[in-house]
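I have been asked to look over a protein record a colleague put together. Thanks in advance; the entry in question is below.
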Amino acid sequence: MSLLESGRILVTGGAGFIGSALVWALNERGIDHILVTDFLGNGGKYRNLVPLRFDDYMEADTFFTRLGDSPEVFDDIKTVFHLGACSSTTETNCRYLIENNYAYTCRLADWATQRELRFIYASSAATYGDGGRGMSDEVDLISDLRPLNMYGYSKHLFDLYAMRRGYFRRIVGLKYFNIFGPNEDHKDTMRSVANKAFHEISTTGRVSLFKSYRAEYADGEQCRDFLYVKDAVAMTLFLAEEKTTSGLFNIGCGTAHTFTSLVKPVFKAMGLPVRVEFVEMPDALRPTYQYHTCADITRLRKSGYTDPVTDLNEAVGEYCRQYLMRNLRLGDAD
């Protein structure tokens, strides 16, 4: 019996983008003994849960309260995927980010490690800042990093906390890069460029990309490590099941692609000619804008993960044809 089959699984942020994709991937393995927590709010995030199978749902603050008052209620939980967080890179309410992304994670990690549960949590590639200090996921280098926004700093703070506590000998932190795919519609301005491009093209027949303000990058040639969400959850589950594996891991494809190369397969899937318009970048974004990100996935490969990463053109094409063009979510189309 595998680790994920041996006890109940907690997925925080389970109605969100990566969280709901993870629940879907567990369902694909025949696993549904899952407790999902999240903040559903007033939007349509709940729709991600509709096709999925799980034991119970609980609002995140209710779970947090019960964890303090009656922790024995959760004694059957053996694995924790902590994916819940505010992921907005433009959020400026520092108190909210500290409480939601840092303090909550500290308490959950303390509870899980004290009970020797398998604990996997989402850090972020935003902790790397402008990349000038490298993008290595070696724990010893955490203190060298300088995040550029409060979201990245809130994630960085917990990485530092886990390092000081010696948790990285037991837990797994995941630095997700630019993930795209089904179940992200609720993310509003934080949706992937692939998702935004599809909707803009549907309306106008063209797509807008930011101009470059650095001579070494032509317009549209800014680069990101784009990874299909199905690959991201496959990597996540692999690391969760490897009981002796611990530490930080970059979750990306290991290759940088330009924004222009990302949007071209969107046009192709829609059967339309490529029409790209380059627009001015907002002044507030320019000082913290990353021109190049690429995950070093050496540690992931050394851990034993050998599956190939889905080709970008294939992944974007499937995303558009199977999900966006049919208005379907993971679980609907399977």
